[in-house]
User: What shape does this take?
Amino acid sequence: MKRIITGAVLIALVAALIYFDILWLITAIAALVALLAALELRNLAAETGAPVPLWWVVVAVGLFFAVSASRPFEPITAVSFLTLLLFAWTTFRAPLDRVLPSTAAGVFLLIYIAYPLSLIPRILAFDEGTVLLVFLFLCVWCGDIAALYVGKALGRHKLAPAISPNKTWEGAIGSIALGNWLATRGLGYTRLATTEPWWQFLLLAILLNIAAQIGDLLESAVKRGVGVKDSGTLLPGHGGILDRVDALLMAAPVLWFVLVLREAF
Assistant: This one.
C-alpha cells in the first residue's frame, strides 16, 4: 500500500509540474532531484572506498544546472572545471590511494545523474516539448508497471540474474509490448496536440522503453556491487530517489539525442 500511495503522489506531482509548465520551477525541481540522487550515489561510492566530498557534490550539481540553464551547449566546460577542482582537492586532502577513485566517482556522478536530469527542462523547451515530456514519463512508468506484472505472471527465463535476479525476458518483452501500448494510448487520452505521425511515437516508445530497462539494470549493477538492495529510504515502499529515476537517467538522454538528430536533419 505504501508503494502505491507514494507512486500516486509522485505521478501527481510530476503531472502538475508539466501541466503548469513553469520552466524555472521544473529546472529547480530537477536540480533538487538530481542532488538527492547524487547524495545517494555518493553514499554508495563511499562504500567502495571512493568518498566524494559533500560540499563538492552540492556545488557541482548546482553549478552544472546553472550552466546548463544559462548556456545549454557548454555543460562540458562545467564538468571539466568541476573535475579539476575535485582532483586538486582529493590530491591535497585525501590519502593518495583515494585520489583516482574519488575523482572518478565524482565525474561519474555528474555524467550519470546531473546531466540526464538537466535535460528535462531542455526537452520541455523544444517545440511540442510538453507532449514529448509527457510521453517520456509515460514510456518509463508504463514500461515499469508492465514489466512488473507480466514478469510476475509469466516470468520464467532470467534476463540478467547476476545483476537483477527478479527480472525476466518475459517481463522485458511485456514491458515493450504492453508498456508501449499503454504509453501511446495514454498520450492519446491526454488530448495533447502534436503534428507528429503516430508511428513515430510508436518507434520512439520502443527505443525509450529499451533505454529505460537498461537504465534500471545499470543502477541494479551499482547497488549489487556495493551489496545493498535500495539506494536509500527516502520514498516509502520505493527505496531511494535514485531507485525511482534510474530508468529516466537512460531514457532522457536517448530522447534528447533523437531530438538533436531531428533538428540536425
About this structure: The longest helix spans residues 198-226. Strands lie at 158-160, 164-168. The CA atoms of residues 163 and 220 lie 6 Å apart.
